[in-house]
Amino acid sequence: MKKIRKVLLTVLILLLIAALCGFFLARRYLPLRHGELIDRYAAEYDLPASLVAAVIRTESSFRADAKSRKGAMGLMQLTPETFWWLQFKLREPEEPNLDVLYDPETNIRYGCYNLALLFNEFEDERTALAAYNAGRSRVRGWLADSRYSDDGVTLKRIPYPETDRYVRKISLYRLCYRILYRL
């Protein structure tokens, strides 16, 4: 709860700074890099560009060379397994060289495709974002559990604090990207 308050306070301060001092400082804290690639692949996969930018900001802070402790790589933090599965879904030959996940275009393209598949599967934005963070099968389990979902389609509560913070953070960053960059 403290981290959520901290993020909310940060966002409110950024919006105040933007209103009083212009967008310069806020844009410095929330940069938008690879905007052309984000626009292209968000449009190709029918996603809001502000959402893609918010996912990238949350996942890697726009660092193309980011690598997580769990082996997720690049801007949108794709694991090798997810990358290979997406290549299979797209009927593309499997790329054995995982360094391509550090290429912004490759990472954004496959990350957007993965998000689009999750949105098609789960319909609800919060649920799809929870699946991007925690995994499809885990979210399916939450949807089947009446403690977390009333209708089997949307999550009324996300049981993992890390995933709950992740989803809230993306929502806040998405709003900021809409305002700061008119995405």
From TrEMBL:
Residues 37-147 form the Transglycosylase SLT domain. InterPro entries: Lysozyme-like_dom_sf, Transglycosylase_SLT_dom_1. Pfam families: SLT (PF01464). It comes from the Bacteria. Signal peptide: none annotated. This is Lytic transglycosylase domain-containing protein. It comes from Feifania hominis.
